[in-house]
Amino acid sequence: MAASPRAPVAATLFAVVAFLMTRCAVAEPPPSERSALLAFLTATRQHERRSLGWDASAPTCGWAGVTCDAANSTVVAVRLPGVGIAGAIPRGTLGRLANLRVLSLRANRVVGTIPGDLLRLPRLRALYLQQNLLSGATILTRIARLGGGLERLVLSRNNLSGHIPSALGNLTALQVVRLDGNRLSGSIPSMILAGLAVFNVSNNDLSGSIPKSFARFPPDSFAGNRHLCGDPLPPCGGSRL
Hints:
The chain is of the alpha/beta class and 241 residues long. It has a single domain (29-229), classed as Leucine-rich repeat, LRR (right-handed beta-alpha superhelix), CATH 3.80.10. Helices cover 16% and strands 20% of the residues. The chain contains three helices and 14 strands. A seven-stranded mixed β-sheet has the order 1-2-4-6-8-10-12, with no helix packed on it. It is found in: Membrane. This is Putative inactive receptor kinase.
């Protein structure tokens, strides 16, 4: 019996589909990204942290808290909130994730400062490091040197000190800035950030008049700064008992 003329076509299509499925199944970020994540985990390993289940034999894009792009070709987000991570973020770990867009390490015990290589990532859009133990007066100055793409900066409830740099206004894509619950001092610099929807610097040690560009935010955004004045707080020059 003669073979159907459609058989070779069907076999070819099957082979192509099988090949594509195999390619998709083994798609992985570059080894440098995988090793960067493992190096970060090893350097911050603490006994009180629950296991993340990052199995070196499993696909990177399936690890808890790790998000890859649609093709599984690169890591675009690391979200590890409240998992007991303790210690400083080591240089040469997360800063090697060249396409990282979102980093969330909120509600951990991250100490010290933010390494420079992490703050040089060109595609970083959101940085959530609230409720940690970050400290020092240089973090905001270094963040201000980031490319203009940063949209969300949340550093609430840390131990940051020093002034809010006026260069923060160069990050023109900012939509959210939360610096509340730190030890920041000095005045709030005048910045024009047209897309800014959330701004909170409450519970610091700021002083002086609130710039007019921030007067549109509610009083709660500035509460807890005894020497801060001006709209939306009481006017400057009056009695502040």
